[in-house]
Amino acid sequence: MTDYVRNFNDGSSAERDILGGKGADLAEMVRLGLPVPPGFTITTDVCRHHLAHGAPPPELASQVARHVALLERAAGRAFGDADDPLLVSVRSGAAVSMPGMMDTVLDVGLNEETVRGLAARTGDERFALDSYRRLVQMFGETVLGVPQELYGAALDDLVRETGVGRDVDLSAPSLRLLVDRFLEITVAHGDRPFPQDPREQLDLAVRAVLDSWSSERARLYRRHHGIADDLGTAVNVQAMVFGNLGPRSGAGVAFTRDPATGQLGLYGDYLPNAQGEDVVSGVRDAVPLARLRELDEAAFLRLRSVMHGLERHYRDMCDIEFTIEQGRLWILQTRVGKRTPAAAFQIAADLVEEGSIDLDEALRRVSGDQLAQLLHPSFDPGAPRTLLTRGVAASPGAAVGRVVFDSAAAVARAAQGEAVVLVRRETRPEDLPGMLAATGILTARGGKTSHAAVVARGLGRACICGAGDLDVDPDSRRMTVRGGPVVQEGDLVSIDGGTGEVFLGEVPVAGSVVARWFDGEAVDGDLVDAVARLVRHADAVRTLGVRTNADNAEDAARAVRLGAEGIGLCRTEHMFLGERRTLVQRLILADSDAERDAALADLLPLQRADFRELFAAMDGKPVTIRLIDPPLHEFLPAERDTEDERVLAALRRMHEDNPMLGLRGVRLAIAVPGLVAMQTRAILEAADDHGSSGGVVEPEIMVPLVATAAELASVRSEIEHVADTVAVERGRSVAYRVGAMVELPRAALTADRIAEHAAFFSFGTNDLTQTTWGLSRDDTEATVVRRYLDLGILARSPFETIDVDGVGALVRTAVEKARAARPGIGLGVCGEHGGDPESIRFFAQAGLDYVSCSPFRVPVARLEAGRAAI
Ligand code: ADP
Ligand code: MG
Ligand code: MG
Predict the structure, then answer these.
(1) What ipTM was estimated for this complex?
(2) Predicted pLDDT at 409
(3) What distance in Å separates the CA atoms of residue 85 and residue 795, rounded to the nearest whole number?
(4) Can you list the domains of the chain with their CATH numbers?
(5) Which mutation among 106, 241, 334 tests ligand 1's pocket best, with the greatest number of atoms within 8 A of CB?
(6) CB within 6 Å of ligand 1 — which residues?
(7) Which residues touch 164 (CB under 8 Å, ≥6 apart)?
């Protein structure tokens, strides 16, 4: 027969899957001999059975009865006993912590009869009635579906009528009155009246906890955190201990280290004369844990030694719930405590220092996401703030600035030295100048991989996308939130790209010392030391290289300071923006070879100068330069913005229904004579110039959107021809390599053939994802992808985290074929995924040589590459 119920003294923290986190750690504490009230755990099997069949397994009732009897013996009192009743708590607890998502009911077992027994035994009628009213309320809310406000309002009314200041000051007769009112509320608004039979209370409470697994908020939480819906929760039934039994009693929470900073010490809150729920709900102000020493020194010292013991045992920061009943300490819960990113690094490094874990383990305990948060400025946590609305946390960082509604206004105000937040319904490529000028970006539409999000992350700007409540009206230069205030252009807002919160007015910002340290500044402090230690260890163990995506010397130099080992992607089209756009337009509109050649000739020196600067900034490190990729008509103005007949004609001629799959990448290189030659010449001449001034560089020329080996062979021979010419002109040859960007399924599948012409491959996982899924990122992210995520059809966006099964399989195939055809071939990845922690892990496993990401993600990639290697 399956054991659906397990005593606390029969289990350990290794059994989280079956006992849930809370139950497993309670069992562990019993094993350690800590003072834990006795109890038992109904296993997660029961919840899974309940999910599958709509009811718990039939054997459960008798197994619970047997364990209640055992519990009665251990506690020395009986459930429902009229003179000395046993009361229990019924507590949820899944294997994965889901704080605040599921239900717990305290004081189960009280009724009209046992409440008198409890009063007589303790000699404290007030306490007994206080416990009873708590039970009726919690039971009513969580089991019988009574709206929470009703009890709260009744309590407030009574506190007012009696003229006492707080609920703890209510007299026994007042509490009796309160219980009666609560019982009436329950009859009027509950699914049924409050049950007087203790065993029925217990069964219904267990049922309610099982049901809470499937509540709307629990589902939403799981979706958000990628937790499977079929894990199920355990239910813990535990003898009550009473923190509300007078002034020598109380309840609290404690942390073995500061969960905000990681510093060693005793942190937490204590609330005298209260049950556990009061501490978190904030009904009364708790006192700092240190004050407990003055209130009850013996209990304090006992607690302190338990805390030290737990920390030594778990070799990590622990968070503890405890209750003191008339001077006696009881431990009700422990777990490895949640912490801020700063605390995570501090604690991991300190534990290494203290000799309790090694550096590999320390690296496992921090993450690239945490490091990313530490690299961005953040709002001063203590500062007051007024929330305006929320959106998707698209690019972390805290930004304060004046609202502007278009790129031009952003540029103009920024030129005056003002900090601005660019607010758009969504952004487009032409908003780039405004995005560059802004400290933060806020959009009403789009998600984490919308244009705004991708560009903002690349630029290191704070960004919130898809703030759906926001009605942006650029024409009247204002925005509103339904039912909220009107925000005009020039008003101050503060946005937190790490949380997605938009605040009215200015919230004070604190800069990131960690970012300054990475950037080479001489800053010090415990946190910087901790981060440095772990990142150095990551560098020492990782086999995956880290390059950066950079198109200019400034970004390249920053990335090198941040640890980049080369450029994995220089997008040459970014060199054609701004005033150079007109040169590209001349090229597009050219009617004759002569006109075209003249336009190309004008572009050449500009490109050459760019590359020279880039090579200087990279100082001998590898530089991969991609030939121009986007369709050329992207460089023309929009139809509505021009009256120039020539431009309009060109727009009509070049119109494509599906530009993503149109004339771009290598197709463009083949279709527009002179383009590849100009770019190659600029690259090689710049490399030669760099070499003759004492520098070293072997540029890697990358051909985008290759589908077939013949395309690459064709462009390659043109490149070789130019190289030969330049060598003759310059009197010496310049070393370079030619490679392909692998971003079409066909390229991946025929990687062996393409590899015959390629010295290296770089996986362009953005396009490879689009073309593998047949999903246009810009068109589907806010619609199809978001909807699929909501419905659970997708667990995560393939544009954010590499789709291992599909796109990943293509990558693996290509790696295998490429290495078989050309063993020394260089293999990297340069899509957005190169900066995504989980994807980095995959790329390391797939055996790539490096990932390339935006400069700001370089430290994150270093850390994650290290984590992937241990
Ligand atoms: P959560 O998972 O929301 O923290 P818990 O099951 O831990 O819910 O219970 C909520 C509160 O009730 C906790 O503060 C805990 O200390 C208190 N509590 C739970 N069981 C008991 C008990 N047997 N005796 C006294 N207090 C309890
Ligand atoms: Mg708890
Ligand atoms: Mg691409």
Answers:
(1) 0.96
(2) 95
(3) 48
(4) 5-239 (3.30.1490.20), 250-336 (3.30.470.20), 377-511 (3.50.30.10), 545-869 (3.20.20.60)
(5) 106
(6) 37, 89, 91, 100, 104, 106, 238-241, 251, 275-277, 321, 323, 332-333
(7) 170, 171, 174
